[in-house]
Design a protein that fits this description.
Elements lengths: L4 H16 L26 H19 L6 H12 L3 H29 L4 H16 L10 H11 L12 H25 L9 H9 L9 H14 L5 H17 L2 H19 L19 H9 L8 E2 L2 E2 L43
Antiparallel strand pairs: 1-2
Helix pairs in contact: 2-3, 4-7, 5-6, 5-7, 6-7, 6-12, 8-9, 9-11
Length: about 350
């Protein structure tokens, strides 16, 4: 039986090893194993050579110092480092200075966040945008990405004195908008609650007290539907902390049902409100036009953004948890809630009295 190539190769290699390896070897010819307990001697530089190298390094360092501008304290620390002969001490000093620089950088990044805050005029503008959002019938939700939508609308409307995008001041802006939004939304809810229980204040009169906070938003049939809807949910005994979440839950159900069913449901809430609080047709308040081409530019921009509000608050793609203090209602009075003038020089234009009543647009 012939052997395979592999077997033949193995046989030849074994024969070659047998020829090359002597049968006996003298113990004197074998290399001795090193003693593991013997400490090898390390060559150390002579003191004179070490001093020479240190002097050379100091001379080189002094020449380098002349090329940079450092304060006296930093120069002294640099000279101390040059005169240090221990490598371990040098590494320790380098690590310490690295930690010091890291701490200084961290502090420098935190200072702008705490230092930036909205000016009084910017806070008035923020409140103007907030009240318009609360009163627009197209607002998708009330406890979601509302702060982000307000900031986006302000940037697109060229509102002055906003911090640059992605700058450290953006965190301060978001906090200011979130705080103001919570306060103004609580004021909205309080005005609704003040008409309960069993007070004969029709939805037109209630809406008129709300639109006082926003001179550019008119009362429309669509807004009547929304206000009646919020007043209906105010009768269900929800706590302040959960109220607007419950409102959004109900809105989400209506949105999922489709536009036709949503309009019918809001119409039913409106009719129930008439039965409970009176017919708005008998009041002195009349409806006006909704947001159109004659509306201020900033209001048109906001009106196109509010249907895009999502249910969870996100900033730059991440979920942001609103501080719990923002979720509590407040009865404090806030001055200067109405903005004087208009953003970007836009003034309120005359409304056409012959236009039809504005209804909710989806």
């Amino acid at each position: 039986m012939s052997l395979s190539l592999l077997e033949r190769g193995r046989s030849r290699r074994a024969q070659q090893q047998a020829v090359e390896t002597p049968r006996s070897s003298s113990p004197e010819n074998l290399p001795s194993s090193p003693n593991p307990f013997t400490t090898p001697s390390l060559s150390r530089p002579e003191p004179a050579a070490l001093a020479t190298r240190t002097n050379q390094l100091c001379s080189l360092g002094e020449r380098a110092l002349k090329k940079v501008k450092l304060d006296s304290e930093t120069e002294a620390e640099f000279r101390t480092y040059l005169e240090t002969t221990s490598q371990d001490e040098r590494q320790m000093m380098q690590f310490l200075h690295t930690l010091h620089v890291e701490s200084m950088l961290s502090q420098s990044l935190q200072v702008p966040v705490s230092a930036w805050k909205s000016s009084p005029m910017l806070l008035k503008t923020i409140r103007k945008f907030i009240w318009a959002m609360l009163l627009l019938p197209k607002t998708q939700y009330y406890a979601g990405t509302n702060e982000n939508t307000i900031i986006e609308a302000m940037r697109k409307s060229d509102v002055p004195n906003l911090p640059p995008v992605d700058s450290a001041g953006c965190d301060g802006l978001v906090k200011d908008v979130a705080r103001e939004y919570s306060v103004q939304r609580s004021t909205f809810k309080k005005k609704v609650n003040d008409t309960l229980p069993n007070k004969k204040i029709d939805v037109a009169t209630l809406t008129a007290s709300l639109v006082e906070h926003s001179e550019h938003v008119n009362a429309t049939l669509g807004l009547y539907h929304r206000v009646a809807f919020v007043r209906l949910l105010s009768t269900r005994g929800y706590s302040n902390a959960e109220f607007w979440t419950k409102v959004d839950d109900e809105l989400a159900t209506l949105h999922a049902g489709g536009p036709e069913d949503r309009v019918i449901a809001l119409q039913i809430a409106y009719e129930d409100d008439i039965q409970a609080h009176g017919d708005p047709a008998s009041s002195k308040h009349k409806t006006g036009t909704g947001v159109d081409s004659s509306s201020p530019r900033w209001l048109q921009i906001l009106n196109t953004l509010v249907p895009q509000i999502q249910r969870f608050s996100r900033r730059q793609g991440t979920k942001r948890k609103r501080p719990s203090s923002f979720d509590t209602d407040t009865t404090d009075n806030h001055e200067d809630e109405q903005e004087e003038g208009d953003v970007g020089g836009n003034n309120k234009e005359e409304e056409d009295p012959n236009e039809q009543r504005g209804e909710e647009t989806t």
